[in-house]
Q: What sequence folds into this?
């Protein structure tokens, strides 16, 4: 029997040899994609933006005298429960009571982390005051004028526990930004991460005990202004960034 050969036909073995293997091409593309992903992840791994503070250097940033106030003690402040979890939520925690002639005593808390990953949430008054038996009666936006054209965006709260009413003003800093809302803090952290940085973060809180809301707000405003003015260049940068 004769074999019929079609003119122009190519043997199967030759055709398979010349045609590209789709599976091999797919593997190559997947490999290149994975390699690119690894390279990008290495390139954009966020790195800390500031050095860690020591206890001694951190304390020195805040003077013992602020305007008419002088550092008196470190007791009587409302803080989160002192357990193993809360001790790991920050690197530095400054707690001071300032007093002076002719002025109301002011309680100051500054919680700081050189690597901000949302850990200062526990120190927000909305969290730690109710945990200590207080009811938040008021929580409104406020601001403290520092220089022409600039004021610290803050929140002003009234917390009550029957025999004790406390007025609180606080603000947060994430990197160079001063966000107040928790969502905005997370957003600033995400923006910094996209730039390849892990920002540092701070929460500063000042409070007074009393019954007169307007007088308390005026006292806290004066105290925060003195705190920023008297803390020097490094302290001011830690408190409000480059503003």
A:
């Amino acid at each position: 029997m004769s074999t019929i050969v079609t003119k122009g036909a190519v043997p199967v073995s030759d055709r398979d040899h010349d045609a590209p293997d789709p599976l091999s091409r797919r593997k190559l593309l997947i490999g290149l994609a994975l390699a690119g992903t690894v390279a990008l992840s290495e390139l954009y791994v966020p790195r800390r933006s500031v050095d860690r503070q020591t206890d001694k250097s951190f304390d020195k940033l805040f003077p013992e005298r602020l305007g008419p106030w002088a550092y008196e003690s470190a007791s009587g402040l409302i803080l989160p429960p002192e357990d193993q979890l809360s001790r790991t939520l920050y690197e530095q925690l400054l707690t001071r009571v300032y007093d002076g002639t002719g002025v109301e005593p002011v309680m100051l808390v500054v919680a700081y982390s050189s690597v901000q990953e949302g850990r200062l949430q526990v120190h927000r008054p909305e969290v730690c005051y109710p945990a200590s038996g207080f009811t938040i009666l008021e929580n409104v936006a406020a601001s403290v004028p520092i220089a022409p054209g600039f004021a610290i965006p803050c929140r002003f709260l009234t917390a009550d526990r029957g025999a004790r009413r406390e007025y609180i003003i606080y603000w947060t800093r994430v990197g160079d930004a001063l966000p107040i809302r928790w969502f905005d803090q997370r957003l600033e952290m995400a923006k910094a991460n996209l730039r390849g940085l892990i920002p540092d973060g701070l929460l500063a809180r000042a409070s007074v005990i009393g019954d007169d809301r307007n007088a308390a707000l005026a006292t806290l405003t004066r105290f925060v202004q003195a705190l920023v003015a008297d803390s020097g260049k490094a302290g001011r940068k830690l408190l409000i960034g480059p503003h």
Summary: The two ends are 96 Å apart (CA to CA). The chain has eight helices and ten strands. Confidence is low (pLDDT under 50) at residues 2-7, 12-16, 36-44. The longest strand covers residues 135-147.
